């Protein structure tokens, strides 16, 4: 099993782990996100970074034993949690996230993010979309316009995307998708009227050198 995860990740740049979190855990994170968001103004981006600093529940989630075991299969024994965020789509924030790689946000050694469904995610409420294997193309220029105020300033031009290779990753509450920072990914707009909340936690291999990241003030070894 474990070699399969590692092999699939190397070839495809992602793995889906169904039911990594129980529905009860995902629901508790969902409610805690909503509680925190009530005290913050995140504009219309739908993104709030740094949950593990704001609530012990998210610090615990970042080091969840089942999650850490899966990460170790892919990254190795020295895994460091760097940062987390919630990305929500709802009636007020209904646009999809544009196509991008995460690498330009962090640079340095490669990072691994875990996208955790805090609601069921479908094409109509904004599930994740990816291009399997696109991480093998390396870093591509992010030259698309980003003037709509929806965040995500780094965007891949549509001509750099082979749309025939895109797949949708529908998810049930508690499912997790671990993906490489060079994987092309995006999400659909939410046209359903139903919320779609996702928790995204980012990790690195602790044996790799990196700059001191200002945004990783909550980093710890898991
Ligand atoms: O959940 C989403 O809409 C995708 C978010 C995303 O791609 C990111 O934060 O890098």
Automatic annotation (TrEMBL):
Molecular function per GO: dioxygenase activity
- Work out whether the entry's keyword set contains Oxidoreductase: yes
Gene3D superfamilies assigned to the protein according to its UniProt record, in alphabetical order = q2cbj1_9rhob like domain (2.60.120.620)
Per its UniProt record, what SUPFAM superfamilies does this chain match? Clavaminate synthase-like
Which Pfam families does the entry mention? PhyH
Q: Which keywords annotate this record?
A: Dioxygenase, Oxidoreductase
Tell whether Membrane is among the UniProt keywords.
no
Output the InterPro entries linked to this UniProt entry: Phytyl_CoA_dOase-like
Recorded protein name is Phytanoyl-CoA dioxygenase family protein
- Biological source species: Cohnella silvisoli
